[in-house]
Write a structure and sequence with these properties.
260 residues, alpha/beta, Rossmann fold, 9 strands, 18% strand, globular
Length: 260
Amino acid sequence: MPKIKSRATFQSFDDLEVGYKGNGVNGSIEIYQSQKERIKDRLHIKDLKWTDRQKEFISLALNEKTKIVFLSGPAGTSKTMLSVYCGLRLLNSKKLSDIVYVRSAVESSDARLGFLPGDADTKLHYFNLPFADKLNELLSDSEVKRLQKDERISTYPINFSRGMSWNDKCLILDECQNSTLKEVITFLTRIGHCSKIFICADPMQTDLKNGNRGAFSRLKQLFSGEDSEENGIRTFEFGEEDIVRSEILKFIIKKVNTLE
């Protein structure tokens, strides 16, 4: 008979998640406590005019077999927007309990801001503006406030993720071109049960010193094989033709790429 491993005390069987690990009678049933109840009131998520390529990403991201997606592309291809949108869809379908937005707190490589006033939340507010911006585009003000009140959305600098274990969450690592190999590995190894990770990057816009391209491209290549796909790790890339922010941006990106 399979062995049962209990990973937490619980008040009700509704609080539990059950998974099977192994093969046949030699496997084990793992029971662990869900960190938080699923969302009760459905969100009214605005559906934007997605391109066929963006719809392809959404389908991949929401697939139950997909656990991690390395998402790359130039500015204006809606990488962050798509990740937040998929996270909200997962909340609505009660697949996950909340969304965690993570970034490296890296300043521009060409200019320094110096010391910012205020507490930690105030200092990090400016780094988290892209997340807030996307939430405001996809939801009403009242729904964003409800998610904040219910602690369904949270933000962290990547350095604070060490020691955490994230279960039942949608994790978005944004601007990963500014994250080092050590930081991304720390982030990836926080993944727990029933979580989904989106790692977004625009490799041409790194702010790391000495022209360092960061860890994203190396890890994206590392996890691009069939064995990774079998384990639910996928890669997805947008090109210049997928830029939707504006036609002038398409022109700018094409010109800038000729400098390399």
